[in-house]
Fold this protein.
Amino acid sequence: MKHPIPDHNPMRGQFAPLAAKAPSHFALSVTDGVATVTLNRPERKNPLTFDSYAELRDWFLGLQKATDIRAVVLTGAGDNFCSGGDVHEIIGPLTKMTMPELLAFTRMTGALVSAMRACPQPIVAAIDGVCAGAGAMMALASDLRLGTPQTNTAFLFTRVGLAGADMGACALLPRMIGQGRASELLFTGRAMNAQEGLAWGFFNALHDSAALLPAAHKLAAQLAQGPTFAHGMTKTMLHQEWAMTLDQAIEAEAQAQAICMQTQDFRRAYEAFAAKQRPVFEGD
């Protein structure tokens, strides 16, 4: 995205395009400010490994300083989104680790969710087929979710002998679908089908599989063409206001909106309205 720090500012060197370096453990393409991140192991339903966790974490962290990305589409190759951590490449080795090693791993997986929530760009998840475990958490950490009638989402940690409290699930899921429904899914590990997910507010919309990715790209493109600085502010406030009282939230939003009123995009919107034209936002 175009960062509000101008080219002549001495801090500008800290900000750079993110798409220049090709990732090793997922596929990446960038078109017109929209990055498409594809989990790319379709023969195994796109499971995560130690290395892909770390690379995804670092890539989403890098979005905070990216100048070329305004929105993200997160999806999986083939007919599935993500089956979670690879049973053989992750779960097997975890059974042989010491407590400090295990804590390093669980902190790393949680850091991926934190990075997704902290990046200013809106993330649109395009979810087909299996969406389980860490894959379900990546979907939950996204800002918007599109599914298909075939999508099944399972927070299945309890089915492998673990707590449902993983990667922020006990904080994020109740806020998304309600405490009672979240409790059921996290205690039982059962799959939430697509219609449940839509009715409960987990999915923003359902599409046929063939139309899923085009719909996600269309939505992401609309967001990328909007006031990206203001979008980043919206995402920040949505995240931070969980821990605020109403009065604190109102004051925080007053300050946030006053900051946005100082942007050139706000001025462009007014001038375009006065001229009966559509505004062209530049993110500054």
